[in-house]
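[job 0412] stage=fold_complex status=start
inputs:
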Amino acid sequence: MKKKADKEIWDIEDLLLSKSYDSLSKEERAFVRKEIASGKEYEELRNTLLSVKKWAKEETQIEPQDEVKTILMKQMEASSVKSSFWDKLGVFLFPTGVPMFKKPGFQLAVMGVVLLFVINVGLNQLGTRQNELALNSKTMAKPAEMPQPVELSNEKLPKEESIQPKSKNAVPLAIAETEQREEVAEDEIVEEVFFYDSEPEPQVLKEEEIAKPQFDNYTEAVRIEPNAMRVLNISVASLSQVTDTKRKKVKKTTNSSQNLAGQEEVIDLLFTAL
Amino acid sequence: MSNYQSYTDNELMQGILEKDSRAFSELYDRYSRMMVNYFYKMLWQDKEKAQDFMQDLFAKIIEKPALFDVHRNFKTWLFSVANNMCKNEYRKQSIRHNTSYDMEEGVQIKDTSITAIDRLQDSQFGEKLKAELDLLDEKQKSAFVMRYFQELSIKEIAETLNISEGTVKSRLFYTLKKLTVSLKEFAPQLAKMILVLFSLTTEL
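[job 0412] stage=fold_complex status=done
writing structure:
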């Protein structure tokens, strides 16, 4: 309905430009009377329209100033100089008159985003699996109650007491400090360890003698090597027996570090004896 | 690109996109006169302002040619840009813009004893028409100026203003009615003048 009304209005303008009211046909008059009240109004509208058109044609047109063109041409030339690779790239990536989704720049950007997303998600998934595996392996490999491996190192000893191995027969051992020894265990261990097959009765050392180093360096220890090695072999063999005995007799021997202290104590005593 | 006159507007715009200054020169020659007159009609018959606005319009084409949609009609696009510039100017002037400004270059018709032909000869009718156009609503004015001064088709106006053709026709018709009422004092003389013109043309 609206389109029809618009068409009629346009037809009226056509009629206004071409025909006076008197020259209109009956149909045309009926048609015109829908929008225009009377023949007089029709003529007024017609006169105005014709006058406007005539005046518009006859009216002097103003001309654009020459200076304006000069300025604009300079501006144009300056802009063409500025045109660089990046401008051309911009025009190539985002050409005008092309729907947004068809612009290469937009397509590349979308591809980039999709790739990033895919890579990110993929890596995350892989990473999750790896993490899970790692967690499981940790749980398996590191039980909470596993004792720490014993590591004897020379760092724990004072420099004077450290023994550096120089011969094949020498056994590298580190003697730790015996500050935290338990007195009860100490006496009994000493009694049990120091006995020899073909040697005189074991000597029981006094506390002062135990604390005092019996030789100053390794070379001194090497001189007494034959006997020492025998004693050491015996002592290493009996080390497990000693620790078992100690466990039984000492109430607080659940900690593995205490066991180690016991072992170190024995070794210390052996060296002292040698 | 030797003969630029044979190129279409869109082809020239493509040339401008590639910084071809000769393409711009050709496009300027085609539309500068039309646009300066459009601005002149739309902006209160201010010649300086019209020149400035025309320069700004073409400067925009130089600076941002990519704004042009190659699938659109260049002429309607250019008019739509120009029309937007006029709208902005109306907004700026809305505070200062008043009837006295409008009538500054128009002429108050007081003496009705002068004939219409005399008035036309003195461009009085034109001046009055200009003044009345300035009093029109911006939407009605732009459609009217495009149609009767720039001779754009209904379709082109519709594209320029981004409205339906029916709306354009409707605006034109009601603007004509409004102007007829405003210019009523010229009606008898106009009628007489038109009759004389018709008779002259028939005699010839």
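[job 0412] summary: Residues 21-42 of chain B form the longest helix (22 residues).
[job 0412] exit 0
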